[in-house]
Amino acid sequence: xxxxxxxxxxxxxxxxxxxxxxxxxxxxxxxxxxxxxxxxxxxxxxxxxxxxxxxxxxxxxxxxxxxxxxxxxxxxxxxxxxxxxxxxxxxxxxxxxxxxxxxxxxxxxxxxxxxxxxxxxxxxxxxxxxxxxxxxxxxxxxxxxxxxxxxxxxxxxxxxxxxxxxxxxxxxxxxxxxxxxxxxxxxxxxxxxxxxxxxxxxxxxxxxxxxxxxxxxxxxxxxxxxxxxxxxxxxxxxxxxxxxxxxxxxxxxxxxxxxxxxxxxxxxxxxxxxxxxxxxxxxxxxxxxxxxxxxxxxxxxxxxxxxxxxxxxxxxxxxxxxxxxxxxxxxxxxxxxxxxxxxxxxxxxxxxxxxxxxxxxxxxxxxxxxxxxxxxxxxxxxxxxxxxxxxxxxxxxxxxxxxxxxxxxxxxxxxxxxxxxxxxxxxxxxxxxxxxxxxxxxxxxxxxxxxxxxxxxxxxxxxxxxxxxxxxxxxxxxxxxxxxxxxxxxxxxxxxxxxxxxxxxxxxxxxxxxxxxxxxxxxxxxxxxxxxxxxxxxxxxxxxxxxxxxxxxxxxxxxxxxxxxxxxxxxxxxxxxxxxxxxxxxxxxxxxxxxxxxxxxxxxxxxxxxxxxxxxxxxxxx
Length: 622
Known about the structure:
Layout: H1 18-35, H2 43-46, H3 56-59, H4 87-92, H5 105-116, H6 124-132, H7 146-155, H8 199-203, H9 206-211, H10 257-264, H11 275-279, H12 301-311, H13 317-327, H14 332-348, H15 352-358, H16 361-366, H17 370-377, E1 381-386, E2 392-397, H18 408-425, E3 436-441, H19 452-464, E4 470-476, H20 482-489, H21 495-498, E5 501-504, H22 507-510, H23 549-574, H24 578-606, H25 611-614
Parallel strand pairs: 2-3, 3-4, 4-5
Antiparallel strand pairs: 1-2
Helix pairs in contact: 1-14, 1-23, 7-23, 12-14, 13-14, 15-18, 17-18, 18-19, 23-24
């Protein structure tokens, strides 16, 4: 898979300007400090954008290298709720009032500082920038430091070795909820098995694990090597080579990369290292800091840490964080408040990550959650095809939705699982596709189909927990009676969501957004197929792959990748030199992609087959 020629959408990790990168650094600084990861930033300085240095490539980034955020030009179809100024034109004014992105680190910081005051005269951080920038050297993260790893693995019990399914003897029964006690990114996984492949017993021995001649990563598109064979404990040499060209095109690999990966393992020089064993008896006490912002004190750091670990799938973690930042107009404090509230929602209110791993099969086969299943068996919705912006299309036939069919909590679960399935159709790396389009077909709609409570939930959930996820919302063929409903629900909509809504009345208007070959024939298009519900079989009650030696390897690999990501993010945030920061930024992009690739390989071990796996329309990729 090649991403060399991908033109990424603007305001993603691959296409930030200097001002935008500074805000992302600031948000990550708060996240790291909140979770207790050591960061050379005091609370006095962290609130000022001037205390963060943008990278060389972002400071000089030309927005013509990326796709406009809006993509397809908005059409003034009947009743469209278009904003008067496109997001692309707004970006030309810059985040902080400048006419274009900053052309240097100093310019970017001046613009940023003007927006939120200036650090005090005795600022430790500003003194570091002034005195240390020229002397800073790039030190790649070949392995995470023991401090970072210990906080992640032992304080938060996030390492695979703490998971319920670590040795295969305590895997939870099928149903998916066992993930909550898993301790790792995905815990025991939905479905679970009570007996592992015999290889698990051997892979759980350090000697077998670290000497296995298997590729540490089998990514089709992993950038220059993640684990260097010349690693030294002082991190003084070796590491990842920065790839050339604009960030976001991480496929310029070193010759022989795949072969060398097969020989490396976790450390090099023939002296294999198991970082879990080297730190398990030397625990580091983390000190989460909730004093920085008032709202942080209401949350449990361990809950949110586990959820942040689980939320990333085949998408990119930095781009997920950026969705919350964009949704709050690059206000770091509001973005953090929104993000943390959403992580808590997943952890303690709506276990979205567990529900999507369980899918629909368990409920169908066990006769539970009947309202949830009724939403599927009515065959009123389906995910199929791409719109003219290449976004996946979710089609919903409103006339098949009856309020009497299912109670609100079951409808909410149906909505959340469907949104999570849509996420698996996205392609952030290979195609820069990170939004979807929804078509509400109101043909035959009547008031018995008007489910105000579920509509209100959808409006809230897209605004608060899945921001920047919607491409277009097409309300098609609305009858006059819908005006009564519309007058109520339009007041619930976030202005950004409302700006994406378009009313279409016939196939010609619909074809401005969707190719006629994908418009159902009953709506005047050419597609003669319909969405259907593939009945689950007993085999669908568990993930398609048994947990074996490869599963254990991937889980350990994920721990290393995630802690390398955290360590690299720390270095990137702390960097005082634009050129050095640029190298860490490129490493971050590499690790984003590596984590995505790791999930893709883990997916068949941890997720029960859903509708789109069973009808073979979904292939999880990035």
